[in-house]
Amino acid sequence: MFNILKTFIFLALLSILFIVVGNLIGGKPGxxxxxxxxxxxxxxxxFFSDKIVLATTGAIPVERDxxxxxxxxxxxxxxxxxxxxxxxxxxxxxTPNAFxxxxxxxxxxxxxxxxxxxxxxxxxxxxxxxxxxxxxxxRDILISTIAAVLVGAITYLAYMAQWALMFGGxxxxxxESSNPLGIIATLIAIIIVPIAATLIQLAIxxxxxxxxxxxxxKTIKNPIALAKALEKLENWNRAYPIDVNxxxxxxxxxxxxxxxxxxxxxxxxxxxxxxxAKLMKMAKxxx
Length: 287
Known about the structure:
This protein is mainly α. Helices cover 67% and strands 6% of the residues. It has one domain (2-284).
């Protein structure tokens, strides 16, 4: 419940930022244009993101006769979660990892790397699948798309303000546009607000990871199995990172890129230590 609340607070903050910066530098016409452009681009991503990411990773569909254990686990966890069984894809990569996509439970897809089954026990694999099914059940693709639309609109407004300042134009009349305080406020909005919006978007991504851990662990009633799987996956992905599009990295259960990111705020994933600690606390409390 706490992570759900955090998500809605972050989305509210993004909405407030959009309204504030829109009134400051774009007015209603500018806000409408920026929102339309961001909405158009992200609607395309929303409806076709599953096909795009599966194609870029080289994932291929796998039938039951090829991977009966994997199909049985996905079917069992999906039934427990109360959603249709997602389609299953294999990514031809030895580094163990997984992600889920699909705009709703009816279009759900789970993709796992070829190396995932080789590393994890049956229960640990079930924990990973439960985490990914939780993303589908919680409609995280929709949540991330809403956040991306708002961040995109704010960014477009900032670009519009940059061009307006460069050519001496602004939404206010000539007297107000020459006001130093107005110009300073606009500069702050151009520089600071898009950064703040991106940080909030990353915070939403991290809160959804915590929620997927919690939901997945409750679904299979085994937080320890997921905690152990996360530790193993983190170690392997730090040693053998996967060459993926950075825009898709947030989809994976652990960051597949070489994690030399210095700032926690700039990470799409929460620290593994914190995720494991929360899961172990759930196990201790008998959840």
